[in-house]
């Protein structure tokens, strides 16, 4: 080793290496102790990194005296939080939602926000279902989005135009007699899930009444990735919307009566439909049938249990590629600071 830090690292590694002799491990420990004891004329340590109090992973995990959530109150979650906690990564949820350490909003999120607002204006009747009018509205706010380069801004603006065009064609087409009854609809319901009570708060992009008077929930997506058909069958966010309908979340939009949930769907505005479903000019639509079984309640109970027990262990997967916390995550090589 040509530096003190490298020497300390090699000595530490030797002390826990099962392939070396006991005598060599003891010699490494003694040298670390000598280095840790060295001090300058003012008593300041010359090699502080040699002392165990500077090492990561030497203490047991700590526990806060103040619980994260009150066990006597319902656990407050959103549909997207349920997906993160139960299916993706509980640590990512905790750091992003509870600690609020997530990265600032990106241009991609701004793209989605603008498209959602324009879709709401059309559904609520504040803006006509006309592409030229929507593009004028888009032009008025587009420069507020920060892109890495002018060519990227122009590219994404064209993508937004295509997404809005798909939305308009989807909006005016006959979809088995469904009619919009609410847009950007806020809801707040409390559900019993096993031993827990879960309070779900969120916003439905669009609520429609189908030909049988049932409530159908639409969620617009502007991301570049879409779940598989099998994943949509048990999509937590769509399922939460349907549960909320059962609990009266959209009664107001149905003149005070309790509608039956008729299903829910993801409308992928960035992605064109298959040729058999109308082709590229229409958005890809992924539908979830009315709920059957207890699987959603099980997901809610699992998520609530993790929050109340504060079990925020990391889970590696495809979601790691876009995670802001990789550098401090023990499930990732770049975040594995603890000596194993």
From TrEMBL:
Keyword Nucleotide-binding: yes
Transmembrane segments: none
Pfam families: PDDEXK_1
Keywords: ATP-binding, DNA damage, DNA repair, Helicase, Hydrolase, Nucleotide-binding
The protein's name: PD-(D/E)XK nuclease family protein
UniProt GO molecular function: helicase activity
Superkingdom, natural source: Bacteria
InterPro entries linked to this entry: PDDEXK-like_dom_sf, PDDEXK_AddAB-type, Restrct_endonuc-II-like
PD-(D/E)XK endonuclease-like domain sequence ranges: 78-329
Gene Ontology biological-process entries: DNA repair
Annotated source species: Actinospica acidiphila
